[in-house]
């Protein structure tokens, strides 16, 4: 993975072309309304028209494991900054703190 860790298919992880490594984001499937909190740990997807790759665990949580793709909304919650600080993203206001930490 781009962050130096091994890929964990059982983790709440994702790959993004645009979000900084280390970003925590809320991903919501537009068809089912199901959502998951993910940590961006890699670069990708490397397929045109896709904005995010998610681990099998997240795909299952979003009910998209069988289809493999879904239309989603991605709302950053915590975005790391170059100076070492963090910035709250659009999803921070609507995500309870226990959900951000995966304790729901």
Question: What's the short story on this structure?
Answer:
By secondary structure, the chain is mainly beta.
Features:
single chain, 104 residues, mainly beta, Barwin-like endoglucanases, 6-stranded mixed β-sheet, globular
In the CATH classification, which architecture applies? Answer: Beta Barrel
Spatial strand arrangement across the major sheet = 4-1-3-2-5-6
Low-confidence stretches: none
Helix content: under 10%
Dominant shape: globular
Mean pLDDT: 87
Written as H for each helix and E for each strand, in order along the chain, the element string is EEEEHEEH
Main beta-sheet strand count, sense and barrel state: 6 strands, mixed
CATH class: Mainly Beta
Beta-strand content: 25-35%
End-to-end Cα distance = 26 Å
Domains, number: 1
The CATH topology name reads Barwin-like endoglucanases
Layout: helices, strands, pairs:
Layout: E1 13-16, E2 24-29, E3 35-42, E4 52-54, H1 56-61, E5 72-80, E6 86-88, H2 97-100
């Amino acid at each position: 993975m781009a962050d130096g860790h091994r890929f964990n298919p059982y983790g709440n992880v994702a790959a993004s072309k645009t979000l900084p490594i280390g970003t925590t984001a809320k991903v919501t499937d537009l068809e089912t309304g199901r959502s998951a909190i993910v940590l961006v740990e890699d670069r990708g997807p490397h397929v045109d028209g896709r904005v995010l790759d998610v681990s099998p665990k997240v795909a299952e949580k979003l009910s998209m494991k069988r289809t493999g793709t879904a239309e989603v909304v991605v709302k950053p919650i915590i975005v790391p900054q170059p100076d070492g600080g963090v910035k709250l993203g659009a999803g921070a206001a609507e995500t309870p703190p226990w959900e951000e930490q995966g304790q729901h």
